[in-house]
Write a structure and sequence with these properties.
HIT family, subunit A, binds zinc ion, binds adenosine monophosphate, five-stranded antiparallel sheet, 30% helix, alpha+beta, 5 strands
Length: 152
Amino acid sequence: MSPSETDAGTGPDASSADCIFCAIVAGTIPSRQVYADEAAVAFLDINGWHRGHTLVIPRRHVADLVSGEPTLPAIAPAIDAVARLLKDRLAPDGFNVLSSAGPVAGQTVFHAHVHVIPRYADQPGFTHLVDPSEVPAAELDAVWAEITGGTA
Ligand code: AMP
Ligand code: ZN
């Protein structure tokens, strides 16, 4: 992230007014939503590391899982439901579930989120976990339809 992006209000101290994930919760920015309940919303990561990589976020703005009121207990049912949905629809060979808190941990969006990442046998282990190559929109639309049964 460049300094100018940080200055624009996207850093760890950003308020909900500046927050891209709050905008997704509000519906003012589109997302490929796969699940929602009263506490959480889940949608495909726009640049996911593996097919079906999904973010589970609290509806309430909080910078990360270790700030403010406890967030993980509130979104745990959503994390569980999303992992089972992805397991059912995409039949991956495994999962990683992770959340980063703070820039030093690699967090880049400062609205708490949990990555639910299906894993496939052809790219095993931690060494293949992170792949920041760009995912074409058509591929995201295809996997979204496979998870939700919807048409993009
Ligand atoms: P982290 O680096 O743990 O903060 O994760 C932030 C994630 O949010 C990254 O994997 C991004 O690809 C993802 N992301 C950023 N903007 C969007 C967006 N508009 N829709 C979906 N995912 C996004
Ligand atoms: Zn937010």
